[in-house]
Amino acid sequence: MMKLSEMTGIEISKMIKSGEISVKEVLQDTFDRIDKTEKTFNCYVTVDKEYALQQAEKVQKLIDSGDLDDSPLAGVPIAVKDNICVKDKLTTCSSKILYNFKPVYNATVVEKIQKAGMIIIGKTNMDEFAMGSTTETSAFKITKNPWNESKVPGGSSGGSAACIAAKESVIALGSDTGGSIRQPASYCGVTGLKPTYGTVSRYGLVAFASSLDQIGPLGRDALDCAALYEIISGKDEKDATSMEFDKFSFSDIKNYSLKGKKIGVPTSYFGKGLAPDVKQRVLESIEIFKSLGAEVEEFDLDIIKYAVPTYYIIACAEACSNLSRYDGIKYGYSADSKNILDTFIKSRSEGFGLEVKRRIMLGNFVLSSGYYDAYYNKALKAKKLIQDAFFKAFDKYDFLVGPVAPDTAPSIGENLSDPLKMYMADIYTVMINIAGVPALSIPCGVDKGNMPIGLQLIGKPLDEKTILSAAYEFQRNTDFHKQCSPLL
Amino acid sequence: MNYEIVIGLEVHTELSTKRKIFCNCTTQFGGEPNTHVCEICSGMPGTLPVLNKKVVEYAIRTGIATNCDITTNNKFDRKNYFYPDLPKAYQISQLYFPICRNGHIDIIGKDGEEKQVRIHEIHMEEDAGKLIHDDWEDCTLVDYNRCGVPLLEIVSEPDMRSAEEVIDYLTKLRSILQYTGVSDCKMQEGSLRADVNLSVREMGSKEFGTRTEMKNMNSFKAIARAIEYEAQRQIDIIEEGGKVVQETRRWDDANGESYAMRSKEDAQDYKYFPEPDLPPIIIGKEWIESVKNNLPELKDAKKKRYIEQLGLPEYDTGLITDSIHLVRLFEKTSEICKKPKIAANWILGELLMRLNESGKTPEDIDFDDSSLGKIIVMVEEGKISRDTGKKVFKKVFEENVDPEKYVAENNLGLVSDTATLKPVIEDVIAQNEKSVNEYKGGKQQALQYLIGQCMRALRGKAPAQEVQKILKELLDK
To answer: 20 to 30 A from A103, CA-CA: which of A41, A387, A459, B464?
Structure first.
């Protein structure tokens, strides 16, 4: 028999449904791995075995009675990023200011995965409030890259990507505001999807930048991500920005041919700053698409030069407003103080980390009177131009291909000292969130240091199907996604 | 020197929708602190607002009734400020694209001529909670029940020139809001609040003076007093060679004076930006038309209909239509008793008398709105006497009793069936031979005497007309 840790969620769910293995046994296997390696990798803020076993008992009954036959991931353990609310369970956003916060309600995605019979095993570590790209800004712990302990797992969904790479979970939910699913997926050698803005409800996702945040799946392959995307997507009455759209069905991605499909390759994604190994692997991947029958054409996406400043202005502006509610009174960390004003000030000063404070200040600055037009308004105009550039590209191409990040995972401590460098490394991912389109990161090999490299597939709005299908085809013909860390 | 007072108003009105603007919590006033709250209106992390469409409809109604242009492409914006009664630390409001613009309300000006007060804009927003200072425990508590109650802010142009004009504008505006069913406008409960922007200038000057903003007036009277106080204060400053400072002032009605709250320098930067959690609301022509077609009857139309179709006197009509609460009671009562004139008489007679006696106003009416109609039906059908009706109404007014039950339980009903009345009347005839003979001899007063005797024997519990009818039949036999 294949080892559980090498199987995908869909394969595990099939085995559970056929009675070959129980939900509890699958959980036990996962917990054994957590017990073995979690001390090293620090993927989780919270692991809740008791809660997982409670869910498992209910789910096993539903599977036995055939009520979950239609759910492709029934019985599968899932890790949830710690900025997604699970009722009565710690939801900290890896911030001291929410160190003890337990929501009174479930996020819509949590309701959906539980309805589909998935078992929440824990909440994953992240950059504080999803601000960062290394998971080092977490107030609690530093997650290590399962491929190399001295490297970061990427971020902000670093825990969600690392727990899959470390085989401490089968699948996970992350959130992506400027690359926070794709970049850690790339660094950790897993598959991750940032869906079209508005296809997955944000209700219960603790907001960072509301117009950019999107919840999405991370998993062992494109098919698992597609199955989880099918489960979590759909219009939600509780999220006014969620859209009505044709139901996505994960099994559809199997009936796709790359023959005659037109792939656009933005030349601006291959300019200065791109590591040679990354460039090489991405170009090789493009050759693979060609060999599968796709037509590839280079095109100019020069507008990329506005992406990072546009992103940081919009994201910080929204963040400073979204984070104003944490005052140390209603919930979370409360500093001891003589009077109320001091309590507010001290709670925020002590409760937020450096990166979060930096972005709160940036956001307040760009929104303040006299600067609004020069920054925020201009960023909104740039956003429109970036969207138009993508729409224009999609008139010609079925999807776009490029790198996820300029380089593989940096060493721990390397990036924090230079925030500007860190921000610039987001250049290939933040544009996608500004445009609101879907994008996927899939493993496409390793660099000289044996660190994984990600390939980014960018789709038309609401066309998750094409990029997931193309990824599925790619993964059927390659085994990069099956390679795993030498440490395991 | 002669001065002209220049006044513009910002009126906040709480809408009478059943649900809050961005969640399903009730908007009911009162209620134990923090019982009308959920994770959304208490601003818990991760929650999102979903717009209550009724709020948009009410805003459109108000816009139509105040002659505004309705904005097609509506957006919400965030107004960021920190205050403990605002759990998200921002208020969802409209800055860049308010739902209504360029309207006007007609008032009677200082010179007695009709004049227009222009409406600059009307926008939708959410209310904040309330801080309660507990002196006993020496602490401040917060009640979020009011968080998310829908508000309209109605901003006028600086077109008013006296306290009288302001009061006339507010009276007209209140009538519009009440008649359109948009708000109950109870100032004591805070569902109508007005901030006064006031400046003074030399008569004839085209330039505006420096203005102040005044808050915390809880009645029309307080507003009028505050205006007179503030105008005089500013004039005194100018006369003494000083300069008016742009600031926000708080009115203290008990002491009849205002004091500075914050100056322009301390004014907050609200860092407005478009609310990313709410998509634009497109208001098409069809929506506006359908609201227009379903707009409740406004005051002037109602007046006209009462006079022309119901035949009510103009004076009575005026008294009733001055208060939406009287209008509602009048229409309900007429619907039950089918006699609008009689309904009007009871309201203007008995009801106003009771209100006067108890020092209450029509908005304080708290008895069941069908009770007066039921009383009138009983009186008109002869089931109770008019005097009994008035007594029952007093009981209804004071204790909200069910009039029909009250009459039955206290045995106040009139006996009108012949079978019960006849033996009693026959008895009276038998015992008053003298009067009977006088009547038969043509003496009409004798009949009145006999009727009186019958009523006495019946202890007043029979309709006099019925008694007279039976008595005459028996005598004339």
So the answer is: A41
Is residue A439 helix, strand or coil? strand
pLDDT digits (tens, 9 = 90+) for B374-394: 999 999 988 888 888 999 999
**Whether pLDDT at A356 is above 90:** yes
The answer to whether position B290 is within a domain reads no
E strand spans, A9-65: 44-47
Q: What is the DSSP letter of A70?
A: T
Q: Examine the domain organization and report whether B403 and B444 are in the same domain.
A: no
Residue B323 has pLDDT above 80, yes or no: yes
Report the pLDDT value the prediction gives residue B452, as an integer from 0 to 100.
87
Range of the domain at B393: 297-409
Interatomic CA distance for residues A430 and B212, integer angstroms: 46
- Chain A contact for B129 (CB, 8 A cutoff): no
- Reported as a single tens digit per residue, the pLDDT across A377-400 is 999 999 999 999 999 999 999 999
Only one residue has tokens 């989780």, namely A44
Closest partner CB to A325 (pick from B88, B273, B276)? B88
Q: What is the mean pLDDT of residues B121-148?
A: 93
B437-450 pLDDT per residue, tens: 888 888 888 888 88
Q: How many residues does chain B have?
A: 477
Residues of B in contact with A98 (CB under 8 A): 45
For residue B252, list its beta bridge partners. Answer: B257
In sequence order, what DSSP letters do the residues of B113-172 get, joined into one string?
SEEEEEEEEEEEEE---EEEEETTTTEEEEE-TTTT-EEEEEEE-S-B-SHHHHHHHHHH
Q: Which residue is it, tokens 């085994």?
A: A479
Across the interface, whether the CB atoms of A104 and B140 are under 8 A apart is answered: no
pLDDT tens sequence across B24-35: 999 999 899 999
The pTM assigned to this predicted structure is 0.90
Q: Which residues of A are catalytic?
A: 81, 156, 180
pLDDT for the residue numbered B369: 94
CB B147 within 8 A of CB B131: no
Find the CB nearest B51 among A206, A240, A327.
Answer: A240
All domains of chain A in start order, with CATH: 4-263+399-482 (3.90.1300.10), 305-380 (no CATH)
- Taking contacts as CB-CB distances below 8 angstroms, the residues of chain A near B84 are 327, 329, 340
User: Considering the domain boundaries, does residue B328 fall inside one?
Assistant: yes
Write the DSSP symbol of residue B357. Answer: H
The SS3 of residue B30 is: coil
The alpha-carbon gap from B87 to the nearest alpha carbon of chain A, in Å, equals: 6
Q: Round to whole Å and give the CA distance between B282 and B63.
A: 16
Instruction: Give strand pairing partners of B19.
Output: B26
Query: What are the start-end ranges of the E strands in A267-419?
Result: 295-299, 399-403
Distance CA B439, CA B474 (A): 12
- Model pLDDT for residues B157-189, shown as the tens digit of each residue: 999 999 999 999 999 999 999 999 999 998 888
Contact A362, A316 (CB under 8 A): yes
Q: Is B48 on the interface with A (CB under 8 A)?
A: yes
Half-sphere exposure of B30 (CA within 13 A, CB side): 2
Is A267 within 8 Å of B304 (Cβ atoms)?
no
Q: By three-state DSSP, how is residue B45 classified?
A: coil
Q: Which of A107, A239, A317 sits opposite B273 (nearest CB)?
A: A317
Same-domain status, B347 and B467: no
Q: State how far the Cα of B9 lies from the Cα of B3, in Å rounded to an integer.
A: 20
More confident residue, A337 or A395: A395
Domain check: are B137 and B215 in the same one?
yes
Residue A1: its pLDDT value, please?
A: 59
Provide, as residue numbers in chain B, all residues whose Cβ is less than 8 Å from the Cβ of A340. Answer: 84, 140
Interface membership of B90 toward A (CB under 8 Å): yes
Query: Nearest CA of chain B to the CA of A98: how many Å?
Result: 10
CB atoms near residue A15 (< 10 Å): 18
B200 and B55 part of one domain: yes
